[in-house]
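Need residues for this backbone.
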């Protein structure tokens, strides 16, 4: 039977012909398969011997068919390679690639700058206690400033999604135990109840900085802000302070930069003032220093906070905050254009 199979395979030239021969010998009604039906008339000892012979024949037949199949497939491939060619001079298919997020770029840019000035990059939990998010920052329960932050509470009124990265400053000062100077920056996600639109989001990235040491003054904050502003917006960028109010700083200021679009002359971006507000800041409130173990008679410090999205929108002329989080390539393509600017 094996010799008959070999003769049949010698005349096979296509895969369809091979399948017909395979079915004839190894199919359900094939010659070799039909041999198993003869075992019913044999004794148990004869069945063992006869069954072993059939299995050997079936294995040999299967190997012959598989070998023939490989030869036919190799032949088909070789003929295809001989008859087909690839024009390597044709232009390649353009493959779209991603680009680093502009928010990530902004954060890393500020991190590298402040690390070169001796600051540490510190992280903290996004699910925070009311104690660290509000109370130790001079915002006791019932304080009206709490309402402005529209907080996401997770469990009762004690556990929440942090509405600012300031709790990391509190934790860092507590770790300093009122004895160590602190220079830190904390970039991270924050959450507030807000309607998402072109300029607002319920989730946004904050970049906060804190410096605590002896004999620190508002002029040190101004100098630090000047360095950051010129690094991000160019050496021609001017800065100014305006009085403001925050419960955790005293005095408090709004930090403005000269409009890089109109160079301070006035336009729709700066609302014809020549200035754009980019941050809130101030000297750390004495109550906050006390709460964190620092004697305000010996220690002083400043804190500032930037919105990464706002910095990116100003720097790269982006007019809709939602493009930072969209998967629409028509929107996110703006990142590809701005990345190397």
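Answer:
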């Amino acid at each position: 039977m094996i010799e008959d199979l070999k003769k049949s395979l010698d005349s096979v030239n296509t895969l369809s012909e091979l399948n017909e021969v395979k079915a004839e010998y190894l199919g359900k009604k094939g010659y070799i398969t039909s041999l198993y039906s003869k075992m019913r008339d044999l004794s148990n000892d004869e069945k063992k011997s006869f069954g072993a012979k059939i299995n050997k024949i079936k294995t040999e037949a299967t190997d012959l068919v598989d070998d023939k199949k490989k030869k036919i497939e190799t032949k088909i491939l070789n003929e295809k390679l001989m008859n087909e060619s690839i024009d390597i001079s044709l232009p390649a298919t353009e493959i779209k690639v991603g680009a680093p997020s502009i928010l990530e770029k902004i954060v890393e840019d500020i991190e590298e700058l402040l690390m070169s000035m001796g600051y540490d990059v510190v992280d903290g939990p996004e699910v925070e206690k009311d104690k660290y998010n509000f109370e130790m920052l001079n915002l006791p329960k019932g304080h009206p400033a709490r309402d402005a932050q529209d907080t996401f509470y997770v469990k009762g009124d004690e556990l929440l999604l942090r509405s600012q990265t300031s709790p990391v400053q509190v934790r860092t000062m507590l770790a300093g135990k009122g004895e160590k100077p602190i220079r830190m920056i904390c970039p991270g996600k924050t959450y507030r109840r807000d309607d998402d639109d072109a300029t607002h989001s319920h989730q946004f990235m904050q970049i906060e900085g804190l410096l605590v040491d002896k004999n620190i003054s508002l002029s040190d904050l101004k100098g630090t802000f000047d360095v950051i502003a010129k690094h991000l917006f160019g050496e021609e960028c001017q800065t100014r302070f305006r009085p403001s109010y925050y419960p955790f700083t005293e005095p408090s200021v709004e930090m403005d930069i000269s409009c890089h679009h109109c160079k301070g002359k006035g336009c729709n971006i700066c609302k014809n003032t020549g200035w754009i507000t980019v941050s809130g800041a101030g000297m750390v409130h004495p109550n906050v220093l006390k709460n964190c173990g620092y004697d305000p008679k010996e220690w002083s410090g400043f804190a500032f906070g930037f919105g990464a999205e706002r910095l990116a929108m100003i720097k790269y002329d982006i007019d809709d905050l939602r493009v930072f989080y969209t998967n629409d390539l028509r929107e996110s393509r703006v990142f590809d254009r701005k990345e190397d600017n």
